[in-house]
Structure formats: C-alpha cells, structure tokens
Amino acid sequence: MKKLIFIVLTILLIVMQNSVSAVENPDDQAxxxxxxxxxxxxxxxxxSTRTEEFMQTxxxxxxxxxxxxxxxxxxxxxxxxxxxxxxxxxxxxxxxSTYPVTDILExxxxxxxxxxxxxxxxxxxxxxxxxxxxxNIEYIDLTxxxxxxxTDSEEIKIMYSQFPEQPESLIEMEMAIAFGVxxxx
Length: 185
Prior knowledge:
Strand order of the largest sheet: 2-1-3
Helix content: 55-70%
Number of helices: 10
CATH class: Alpha Beta
CATH architecture: 2-Layer Sandwich
Shape: elongated
Distance between the termini: 79 Å
Largest sheet: 3 strands, parallel
Order of helices and strands: HHEHHHHHEEHHH
Radius of gyration: 25 Å
Number of domains: 1
Number of strands: 3
C-alpha cells in the first residue's frame, strides 16, 4: 500500500510540475501551431471519375442495361437507369458543391496516413467542414496529394487551378438536378 501511495504521489508531483511549467512559459506552447490537413472535396470527386475502377463500373452498368433491354427485362433496365441516375446525382453534388466524399476516400484510406505523415499534420478534414478557425491553427492544403492517390495529378492540378473559389450551395445543386433550374435562370 505504501508503494502505491508513493507512485500516486510521484505521478501527481510530475503532473503538477508540468502544469506549473506551462503556466510559467505560456509562449512556449503558443508559438507551436496545430497543423491540420485540408482538402477540397470537389477535386477529390472529379479525380475519382478519372479512375479505371470508376470507368469500368460505368461501362459494366451500361452493358448490363443494354443486355436488360435486349432481353426484354424492363424491370432490370429501369433499376439500372435509376442506379445510374443516382450515381450521377451524387457525383454532381460532390463535384460542384460540398457533398461528402467519404465513400471515395474510403477506397484509398490505407494510403492517407502516409500523406498525413509526409505533410506533418495531425488530421485531414474537408475544408468546407471548417466552421471556425483561430490563429493557432495552420491549415495545409493536401487536395492534390489526396487526388494523386486516385489518378494522374497533372490533369487535376489544371482543374484545381480553374475551379471556382466557392462551390454551389447544396440547395442550388438540388434545384438544378431536380428541375434544371438555377438562380441564374
């Protein structure tokens, strides 16, 4: 029991000593900014459409759709049309607005820690998900590094430089998809 009390007191003393040190030297902690990696989800979405996997998936759906029509299977044909429409709807929201791209990043999740380590960041978040930031945080744009996990980054670099600064709102995107209407019409 005496050993346990001694260990607890020793730990308590060390914690108190570190706390006093932090209070005495607040500048030591304030000078080091947290590094957070950010990405533009729109570019990740566009990069994903350039992958061999995506192109094969679309080609397979088109082929299955044609086979269903040829065999007279109208139910399967309609299901595939709906699936294609749904994929297109989601991709438009991801590429032109702020719709999440977690399904895309899931495909390269094993490579993301390497990107984070190389950039020396604690985490990587969608830049459109940041509601507040202060001067103690340094944001590192890792959009192109993440896009490169999916496809050739030269083409994506050009697109990234030409993308509008602000994405469309999801409401505008839904209106455009559903009715072909935008605020400009």
